[in-house]
Design brief:
With 163 residues, the protein is mainly α. Helix content is 78%, strand content 0%. The longest helix is centred in the first third of the chain and has 29 residues.
């Protein structure tokens, strides 16, 4: 329902607004999405503050493990991008895919760090909640970072049409 609503709203606004107005709406929405995601994650944590505080040491270790995991995947992606001379599109794909496909890796990491703990499920959920703002931050970083010259020539589909 959210996807269909968003798609329908996008199409309706595109047809009824002038192009500058539509671009303004897209820019505003693009700014608000990370704010709403951060607020949602904050509300989820706030609703569970009693549990979090009663397990504060474990919660701190979980957050530290998640943070280190995200840092390692970022630096690994950057290292591999440089090592294999990836262009900007390939670098972005590697970084975002690595960041978004980490639930099994996070499960393994959490299981190794905290064996036989009932908080393993909580750690995975916390990691998944933190993943949304993390992906938004990665997207922001990757869009702002200047791309090095791609070692690969553009494909025929990516080449501009001749005048």
């Amino acid at each position: 329902i959210p996807f269909a609503s968003g798609l329908l709203g996008h199409q309706i606004l595109r047809r009824i607004l002038p192009s500058q107005g539509f671009e303004g709406v897209l820019k505003t929405v693009g700014f608000l999405v990370p704010c709403f995601l951060a607020a949602l994650v904050g509300c989820i944590f706030a609703a569970n503050i009693t549990t979090i505080l009663s397990h504060a040491p474990a919660f701190a270790r979980i957050l530290a493990a998640v943070f280190v995991f995200f840092l390692i995947t970022w630096y690994l992606g950057e290292f591999l991008s440089r090592r294999f001379h990836l262009g900007q599109p390939e670098r972005v794909l590697l970084t975002m895919t690595t960041a978004a496909r980490n639930a099994p890796l996070m499960l393994g990491l959490t299981t190794a760090v905290m064996p036989d703990q009932p908080l393993i499920y909580a750690a995975i959920i916390i990691g998944m909640l933190v993943e949304f703002p993390h992906l938004m931050a990665l997207s922001h970083l990757l869009l702002r970072k200047k791309s090095p010259a791609s070692p690969h020539p553009p494909t025929a589909a990516a080449q501009p049409a001749s005048p």
